[in-house]
Amino acid sequence: MDSLTINGFGSSGGGTFQTVELNGKGTINGDVECKQFSCNGAGTMKGHVKAETVKISGRASVHGGIAASSVRIDGSAKIEGDVDADKVKIAGHASLSGHVKGDDLIIRGKASIGKDCEVEHFTAEGCFTIDGLLNAEQVEIKIHGGESRAKEIGGRRIRCTAHRSKFLSLLKPFLPGPALTAELIEGDHIELANTTAKIVRGNTVIIGENCDIGLVEYKEEFRQAKSAKVGDSQNI
């Protein structure tokens, strides 16, 4: 099986390859299926990518979707279709217009998702925007001072905590208010800090520092920090 490499300015049709490597300003006109796909330059994919591993270290524009075992974005990526992968790690900047599905999504950079995100484990230490539903078994969000939002968040265990550092403590008076915003947060065990939400619903709900919640609905336990604002709480 042949490999495809574009080092300078160049273009190619799609097809099935062992590896695909875009090191220059390359364009692929069609769908690609390969074991390894990498973009280290400024690559444009005018089709879908199906691969075992996808790594974007440069700047990539994908007009279709991506299906892979693992996707890693260290550079900048704009993907217009859906992303379906076992593991997605975003350390750079990613604009994903479609749905995201998989096992693990790790955000350490900045990500925007145009539709729903359905994964087993969602971990964010960077900033994210999800226009649809974030649904995961485990949701772990560590606030570093940036703004993140999702329309709705659902999961079995949801934790949003503030990242502790001396540097951020010094900047605290200058940082904006709550860093996570959602209309609805619903799960079994919910623990929140620095969060604004209209409704929080769960079995156990712990509302920590710097939260502004309209309504809390809980079945078993509800705790609220002194600095948190809760409009109403109901045992359901």
From TrEMBL:
Domain of life according to the entry: Bacteria
* Classification via PANTHER family: HYPOTHETICAL CYTOSOLIC PROTEIN, POLYMER-FORMING CYTOSKELETAL PROTEIN
Q: Which family does it belong to?
A: Belongs to the bactofilin family.
Q: What is this protein called?
A: Polymer-forming cytoskeletal protein
Q: What is the lineage of its organism?
A: Bacteria, Bacillati, Bacillota, Bacilli, Bacillales
